[in-house]
Design a protein that fits this description.
Mean pLDDT: 77
Structural class: mainly alpha
Order of helices and strands: HHEEHHHHHHHEEHHHHH
Largest sheet: 2 strands, antiparallel
Distance between the termini: 27 Å
Number of strands: 4
Strand order of the largest sheet: 1-2
Strand content: under 5%
Low-confidence stretches: 1-10, 21-25, 28-49, 119-126, 499-508
Helix content: 55-70%
Shape: elongated
Length: 508
């Protein structure tokens, strides 16, 4: 009867091992940043206005939806997508159920055998060296598996934290630039009001500024909320792996010594505890299969989106783009403000500073005009000979500054502008250049360049490490749970061996 019970345990182990290894087909294999079929997807689906990200990658039979193939593409907020990925972990959850049910029955049979068919201790018996060797090997395997778990868990934590920090740094840089654009509009509005510039210099600034600030707040809030969720998930993953690893080591080591020493009460308590812990480890392994596939899908989705960006996709849940309309309005307003301010500066230079009929004792060469980068229709304009650009205007005009005497603010030396007027021109040039300088940044916002760059960098620099870590964590859990499964069987086998019982009865 005892022999039948041990065979039953081995059958359960090997059947569970088969399902556990079978579940490994759920791990997709990628070369670089693409999976097979991506080119076909790029030529087909991505031409549509609504982009289904990683559609081939995410096409799976959904166990929870009558085994229908999921075709909705990557979308972390879609329950159908979640269940389709969860279906990849079903084989492992089945292992957990089989283990908990069947090995529980084996434990009951073993206990009945122990009570109803006590072993005889007469005679001489050979020690069960094979079981002892396997017990030691299983304990060593548990320790090695925990080392694999801890090392890859630490790398997983560091890589994920680096990704979050990188995303937040990109967001903070974008938000800072948006606020700088807003401040530049404020300065332009102040100058327009103080110098009585044309009314269109102030028109629409408040409306555009409000949209800029709203976009900055939305981008910052959503990114920080997502980062807090990810950090909570990481803390849960770390805690679960630490608890599983440390518990497995403690149980396997204590089980080895109690089995050798024949401490039946402690041993069978450990067997029951190990039975439950192994089932929990299987469930955790299924969770990592799910996590691995979500990460892999997300990396593929990021790569596809970075090559074919659209205004709205499911990736907005991770890092949203600034609304195209807001970016366009801001860009056009910055160009119009730049054109108006440069025209105002040139009007002041040509009509006042270079006009000798105005009193102020002006003399010397004429002050060069500031190059206006835009025409009246806001198209790009090339500078002409004799104009100065934003980069050197302040330095050039400094050579045209005169010295003043008394309180009448009139030039007492050769020069076209007094220090006071020079400071005003400097302020206007700085504000104008600031508006012009952020033009390329606003263009990048319109086509989501900063988001596209962020996703491409994550896919190239971080995704391979993440996928490797989750895969090795899975294998670490496999080593630990498989070794403890065998340990439970050999604990019982070694403790129930006739030599073992005969030896300890003679001792006591």
């Amino acid at each position: 009867m005892l022999h039948l019970t041990s065979n039953s345990s081995f059958l359960i182990f090997f059947f569970s091992l088969f399902l556990f290894l079978y579940s490994f087909h759920s791990f997709p294999i990628r070369d670089g940043v693409k999976v097979d079929g991506d080119e076909q997807l790029n030529q087909g689906v991505m031409q549509n206005s609504t982009l289904k990200l990683a559609q081939i990658q995410t096409s799976r039979n959904d166990f929870f939806n009558h085994f229908e193939v999921y075709t909705g593409g990557w979308n972390i907020s879609n329950s159908d997508y979640i269940t389709s990925v969860l279906s990849t972990a079903v084989p492992i959850f089945a292992v957990a159920a089989i283990w908990l049910v069947l090995f529980g029955l084996v434990l009951q049979i073993t206990c009945c055998c122990y009570c109803c068919f006590p072993k005889q201790s007469d005679g001489y018996y050979q020690p069960d060296c094979i079981s002892l060797i396997f017990l030691i090997l299983c304990t060593i395997t548990v320790i090695c598996g925990c080392v694999v778990l801890y090392s890859n868990e630490q790398e997983f934590q560091e890589t994920t934290s680096d990704i979050i920090d990188y995303i937040l740094s990109q967001v903070e840089l974008t938000v800072e630039n948006l606020k700088n654009v807003s401040n530049s509009f404020d300065s332009a509005k102040t100058i327009a009001h103080e110098l009585n510039l044309p009314p269109d210099a102030e028109m629409g600034i408040d409306s555009v500024k409000k949209k800029i600030l709203d976009a900055a707040i939305n981008l910052s809030d959503k990114s920080h909320d997502n980062s807090e969720i990810l950090y909570r998930v990481l803390d849960g993953v770390k805690l679960s792996l630490v608890l599983v690893g440390s518990t497995m080591i403690v149980v396997s080591v204590i089980g080895l010594f109690t089995s050798v020493l024949g401490l039946k009460c402690i041993l069978y308590s450990l067997v029951v505890a190990g039975w439950i812990i192994v089932g929990g480890t299987f469930i955790l392994s299924g969770g990592f299969v799910f996590l691995h596939n979500v990460i892999d899908d997300t990396c593929v989705a990021m790569n596809e989106w970075s090559e074919n960006p659209t205004s709205h996709t499911a990736l907005d849940e991770i890092l949203p783009c600034v609304e195209n309309q807001t970016s366009l309005e801001t860009f056009l307003k910055s160009k119009s403000e730049t054109y108006i301010l440069v025209n105002s500066v040139n009007g002041l230079i040509s009509k006042v500073l270079n006009d000798n009929t105005f009193p102020n004792n002006k003399s010397g060469p004429l002050l060069p005009l500031l190059c206006n980068p835009f025409n009246s229709d806001l198209t790009v304009r090339q500078c002409v000979i004799g104009e100065v650009g934003f980069e050197n205007a302040i330095e050039v005009w400094k050579n045209y500054t005169c010295q003043v005497s008394g309180s009448d603010n009139h030039c007492s030396t050769t020069g076209r502008i007094t220090p006071f007027i020079y400071n005003q021109l400097t302020t206007m040039v700085n504000v104008t250049y600031s508006l012009y300088h952020y033009g390329p940044f606003l263009v990048d916002l319109m086509d989501c360049t900063f988001v596209r760059k962020t996703f491409k960098d994550i896919n190239n620099d971080y995704c391979p490490s993440l996928e490797k870590c989750t895969k090795w964590i899975y294998w670490g859990l496999f080593m630990v749970s498989g070794a403890v499964m065998l340990s439970l069987i050999f604990w019982i086998s070694y403790e129930r061996h006739p030599y073992h019982n005969h030896y300890y009865r003679r001792q006591f």
